[in-house]
Design goal:
The chain is mostly helical and 120 residues long. It has six helices and no strands.
């Protein structure tokens, strides 16, 4: 059986890089599955940027915003028919991969600049 974590690491680590380096012609050749995957990654980046902007506003609601958004995301997955097991596994896999991705840093340096450049 294929390792689902390995597959998710591939798409998480490489989707933005692959998309950024594609020519217009190559983007036209994407399968529906690849378009959906890239679109989902774009939405995740936009969501993270929006949460960052909310935190930067220093309004009282921003302190709980990330937890609220993650909870809402979870309920939206549930409403779209994902099982509790699928949702739980996805969140646990993401958490398990966080230390490797973050290289032991608590917070990414230059996060705002990184978030904006990812959207380009």
């Amino acid at each position: 059986m294929p390792d689902p974590l390995a597959a998710s690491k591939f798409s998480t680590l490489n989707a933005r890089r692959l998309r950024r380096n594609m020519t217009t012609e190559a983007q036209d050749d994407l399968t529906d599955e690849e378009r959906a995957l890239f679109g989902a990654h774009d939405l995740a980046a936009a969501l993270a940027l929006r949460c960052h902007q909310l935190r930067e506003m220093n309004v009282s609601v921003s302190e709980a915003a990330l937890g609220n958004v993650v909870n809402t995301l979870m309920t939206e997955f549930w409403d779209q028919g994902f099982s509790q097991s699928e949702i739980r596994l996805a969140f646990l896999e993401a958490l398990a991969d966080m230390n490797r991705y973050a290289a032991g840093q608590e917070r990414r340096k230059n996060a705002a600049r990184t978030a904006r450049s990812e959207m380009d």
